[in-house]
Each structure stands twice: as C-alpha cells, then as structure tokens.
Amino acid sequence: MKNKTNTMKFVQGMTFSALLFVSVNLLAQETAPTVSEQNADNRQEAVQKNSKKRQQTVQGNTEKRQSTVKTNTSNRQTTAAHNTNNRKSVTQDGVVTQEEAIETGKTNSSNRKQTGKSNTENRRTTGGSNAKDRRNAGKENTTERRNRYGENRANRRANQ
C-alpha cells in the first residue's frame, strides 16, 4: 500500500504534459513490435520483393521470346513470298530454261539459309538477353536478402 501511495503522490505532483509524455511512452513500448516480429516482417518483405522481381523477369523474358517468334515467322513468310515471286518471274514467259531453274533454286535456297541464320541469331540474342536478365534479378534478390539479414542482425544486437 505504501508503494501505491508514493505513486499517487508522484503522479499528483506531475504536470499534465509530463503525464501525457509518460503515458505515450508506455503505450509505445506496449505496441512496438519485438525484434523477432520486426525481423520476420523484414524477411517477409524481402520474400515479396524477390518474388515480384522474379515474376517481372519471367514476364519480360516471355514477351521477348514471343516477339522473337513473331519476327522469325515474319522473316520466313517474307522469304517464302520472295522465293515464290522469283519462281513466278522465271515462268512468266512460259518457258523455263534449265539455267533459270537452277539459278532460281540457288537464289531461293540462299534466301532460306540467310533467313535461317538470321532467325537463329535472333533466338540466341533473345536467349542471351533473357539469361542475363535472370542473372541480374538473382543478384538483386541476393543483395536484398543480404541487406535484410544485416538489418535483422543489427536489430538482434541492439536489443541484447
């Protein structure tokens, strides 16, 4: 009972602003997250950021692959149309010499090969770019995890 009386006298002697300050500090101490809660929040935030980064990388890489497929399809169609026109122009007069047929065949074959090389290079470029994007996203995610780990370690040390 003596402690209660002393506390009452102490409180009675305080100004309103001092009481308010003490009560706000007590409330803040009660509602502040613990170190483990804060660290868990940090880890969860890092997981969400990393997941989002992976999803964005996958989506970007998928879009690049689809664009490459469209470009390569267009290249093949253009080559096929060009080769068809080559054959038509040779046969316009109704007479196709053996030399014309051989030359047209060689030209068309060369066109197909060049288109194939171009399309292969497009796929390689896209694949390399996508691999680089995945590596960079992985590095960013690793950095994010390391930063969170360092922050969490500092939180634990500060509260020992």
Strand content: under 5%
Tell the overall outline: rod-shaped
Main sheet properties = none
Rg, Cα atoms, Å: 36 Å
Q: Ends: how far apart?
A: 34 Å
Q: What letter string, H or E per element, gives the SSE order?
A: HHHH
Helix proportion range: over 70%
Mean pLDDT: 85
Which structural class is indicated by helix and strand composition? Answer: mainly alpha
Low-confidence stretches: none
* Tally of contiguous helical segments: 4
Total strands: 0
Walk me through this protein's architecture.
The protein is mainly α. It is built from four helices and no strands. The chain has helices spanning 2-12, 16-31, 35-91, 98-158. The mean pLDDT is 85.
Sum up the structure in keywords.
single chain, 160 residues, mainly alpha, 4 helices, rod-shaped
Produce a short descriptive summary.
With 160 residues, this protein is mainly alpha-helical. The protein has helices spanning 2-12, 16-31, 35-91, 98-158.
